[in-house]
């Protein structure tokens, strides 16, 4: 068995890494430890780079066709990892999950229509909808003692009042890392089907389940879900290849799928990209060992943060994620407003975390920490945060 080293610090400067190169534009300074954009600071598994290098040895990079091996890799992965069956006819390439959401918004809704999202949630759920002249209607998650849950009664009321055409679901949920239960997903599907609401389920974090929990694909939960669901998946977060822009979509219901896939094809939105398909196939066929070790490392980073905060900064709370490498940090115990929290992180601790309000107004008092980084980087970051908080307390 290969043993991968996730402790190695890799300098990403000069590699067009958005996480670094966008610091100035987003945070107004570049001297920050980047713990924000959701990619990993780990080297990808070597079989992926080997497959890309092998193809690049051939000097012609002409128009290409996705191979059967590529499609089978996606199908086999889903069957093997999630017990989820996909027929080849149900599958299409999409150049990025956010673009997949955008295509669905454009095809299934019209300008002025309403689309439901459940904040706090990944920012593009709102920006894609609003950027296309549709209206967002919010069904906020409800905070509980353990974390958050969906407000399905609220969803029913909201659908009656606003008559949305679509809902964009995050499963598992970013930024909080919740895998929704089969019961909740089935109830959501039944509510939406009754009202003719198409559900776009973004499952980009679905392979990143922690502590051996199962991922529950939306389309696996019920006939209702299969009747109205458009599922988006990708190897990008799973294997740290978002730069290859390789995602896919599944629509089970032929009445939804046929016109939609014809529209995608007519516009060449679903035309596979050579380098994406090569990377994805190599990842799904050879990356499982790397993924399992990476998830163990991420889990130990989560434990590290939880223990560190309990021992050193007990005012901060962590919502323990069930999936992925993002931590929803609760700063409300410090009694600061959002501006003060961000000043503390940026100007005092020199850390770039995502401002919780990026995910919706419900994120006030929170910031999102990406723990997909070597332990020593995380340790140093937490030390800086501790010192910065101590400095503020001393000033007060
Ligand atoms: C829930 C969710 N969807 C989509 C994306 C981005 O996907 P893509 O880069 O394939 O557009 C992210 C990235 O952080 C995400 O967290």
Commentary on this structure:
This protein is of the alpha/beta class. The chain folds into 2 domains: 18-44 and 288-395, Aspartate Aminotransferase, domain 1 (Alpha-Beta Complex); 49-286, 3-Layer(aba) Sandwich (Aspartate Aminotransferase, domain 2). Helices cover 43% and strands 14% of the residues. The strands form 4 sheets. The chain has a 7-stranded mixed β-sheet, with helices on both faces. The chain starts with 17 loop residues before the first helix and ends with a helix. The structure holds pyridoxal-5'-phosphate.
Number of beta-strand segments = 15
CATH superfamily of the largest domain: Type I PLP-dependent aspartate aminotransferase-like (Major domain)
Calculate the terminal CA-CA distance, rounded to whole Å.
54 Å
Classified by CATH, the class of the largest domain is Alpha Beta
Number of domains: 2
Q: Indicate the multimeric state.
A: single chain
In a few lines, what is going on in this structure?
This protein has 15 helices and 15 strands. It has about 400 residues and is an alpha/beta fold. A hairpin with a 6-residue loop joins strand 11 and strand 12.
What features would you highlight for this structure?
single chain; 396 residues; alpha/beta; Aspartate Aminotransferase, domain 1; Aspartate Aminotransferase, domain 2; four-stranded antiparallel beta sheet; 15 strands
